[in-house]
Hints:
Family: Belongs to the CoaE family.
InterPro entries: Depp_CoAkinase, P-loop_NTPase
Protein name: Dephospho-CoA kinase
Order of helices and strands: EHEHHHHEEHHHEH
Keywords: ATP-binding, Coenzyme A biosynthesis, Cytoplasm, Kinase, Nucleotide-binding, Transferase
CATH topology of the largest domain: Rossmann fold
Helix content: 55-70%
CATH superfamily of the largest domain: P-loop containing nucleotide triphosphate hydrolases
Catalytic activity: 3'-dephospho-CoA + ATP = ADP + CoA + H(+)
CATH architecture of the largest domain: 3-Layer(aba) Sandwich
Amino acid sequence: MFVVGLTGGIGSGKSTVAAEFQRQGIDVVDADLVARDVVAPNSQALQQIQYYFGDSVILTDGSLDRAALRAAVFNNEQQRRWLNQLLHPLISQEMQVQLKAASSPYVLWVVPLLVENKLYQQADRVLVIDLPVEQQKLRAASRDRQSIAQIEQVLASQASRQQRLAVADDVIDNSRPLSEVKSDVSTLHQRYLKLSQH
Length: 198
């Protein structure tokens, strides 16, 4: 299976671009969605999280309170390590299952931490969604209803724009109008179709 790894920092527009590829009939494996699935209500992972962190990280409907969990691990290295050791193997395993099950000519693998976790080495092509950091902050803040300070903390924990661009095979500049971004997706789609046939 020909795998295109798509990445970009917070607020860069990964989901928007992935949706465009989906419209072209391409299967998308999204790390964030997989991460949600592995901690779905009644899942073993969620039960372990509840046991470790207590009921404060569980919402009344039995689902994970992501904000509370984020807050709990943000400044606690030991708890973050425990959480990562629990979730990373489960997420990784499920992503491999979904990548293998993909039936489109190539598969789009959307991973926010593609560079940080060195997963780009497992992709045939790396597509980076890029835009200026100031624009990224404003988009992320308006979307997630978080303060610029919170967004800056997330940015500081992610790979820099330069680090992402250094491993990119292809780049979409998402600071432009959506119509131009869509046109880029169509062009890349044709390129990936050709590459996936070799």
